[in-house]
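Fill in residues.
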């Protein structure tokens, strides 16, 4: 009798801890890369906590080496955390990664496309891998090629693509299976301004469709234009977090670059 009351209490306690409006919840996350010598140890992520609400575009903004990619790799199951807890879509990153993988798509910082397939060939290949119906792959593939500015080059082999075009293709591949939660690591690096805008416009439509997007960037304008909220990262820590406009107002400056400068005394553009 007493035991079941305890269970009931602990269930209520658990239910209180799970907030369904959050798609991602990160608590006290640390990642320590141990080198052969103490000198080469890196604390890449140093105790960060944040959440991402359903339908939000959340940005991790920071210079090179701030810990953005490491964070994304942990959240998408390619790296294990050293400490801390992460849930994605309500599932635990350590024990339920398979369930997480079914609901997410990732556009990694280093795009993985097949160089000896054309753009459309890559789209078909990955679409088949996701077991999508053929007509759906072609329809959505063509739509995305047009929206993201790669339609003209769709029949050319990817080995002839520029860095920016490979990134556009990698983004299309990540979007082909219409994920609920999308992870984009530096999605517009190497894109010319016109195609960068196309990607931004497209991501805004995803927001309208209530998809959750978490992206990393070192482009101030990208963070300010797209993100509902940003976490500014520096040396593995979050040094500021909130809606871009609110951060700008709080620090009484003109843009996020100046917010970074005010907190760290350095320019976010250094070392990029
Ligand atoms: N596999 C690894 N082994 C050792 N150090 C790593 C590894 N991956 C990343 N790092 C280091 O962790 C820090 C954060 O890197 P990263 O997460 O890639 O930063 P960002 O994406 O913000 O540029 C850097 O100092 C980087 O050199
Ligand atoms: Mg990175």
């Amino acid at each position: 009798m007493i035991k079941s009351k305890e269970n009931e209490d602990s269930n209520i306690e658990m239910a209180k801890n799970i907030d369904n409006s959050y798609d991602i919840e990160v608590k006290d996350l640390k990642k320590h890369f141990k080198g052969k010598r103490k000198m080469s140890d890196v604390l890449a992520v140093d105790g960060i906590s944040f959440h991402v609400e359903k339908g939000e575009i959340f940005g991790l903004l920071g210079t090179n080496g701030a810990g953005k990619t490491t964070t994304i790799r942990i959240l998408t199951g390619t790296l294990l955390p050293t400490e801390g807890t992460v849930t994605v879509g309500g599932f635990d990153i350590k024990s339920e990664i398979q369930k997480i993988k079914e609901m997410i798509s990732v556009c990694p910082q280093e795009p993985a496309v097949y160089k000896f397939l054309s753009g459309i060939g890559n789209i078909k290949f990955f679409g088949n891998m996701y077991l999508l119906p053929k007509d759906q792959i072609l329809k959505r593939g063509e739509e995305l090629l047009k929206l993201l500015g790669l339609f003209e080059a769709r029949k050319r082999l990817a080995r002839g693509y520029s860095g920016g075009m490979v990134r556009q293709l990698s983004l299309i591949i990540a979007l082909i299976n219409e994920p609920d939660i999308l992870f984009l690591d530096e999605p517009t690096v190497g894109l010319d301004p016109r195609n960068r805008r196309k990607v931004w416009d497209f991501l805004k439509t995803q927001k309208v469709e209530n998809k959750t997007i978490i992206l990393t960037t070192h482009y101030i304008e990208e963070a300010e234009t797209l993100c509902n909220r940003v976490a500014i990262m520096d040396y593995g820590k979050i040094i500021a977090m909130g809606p871009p406009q609110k951060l700008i107002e709080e620090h009484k400056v003109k843009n996020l670059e100046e917010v970074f400068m005010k907190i760290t005394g350095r320019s976010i553009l250094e070392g990029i």
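The pocket of adenosine-5'-diphosphate (ligand 1) is lined by residues 33, 42, 44, 62, 64-70 (CB under 6 Å).
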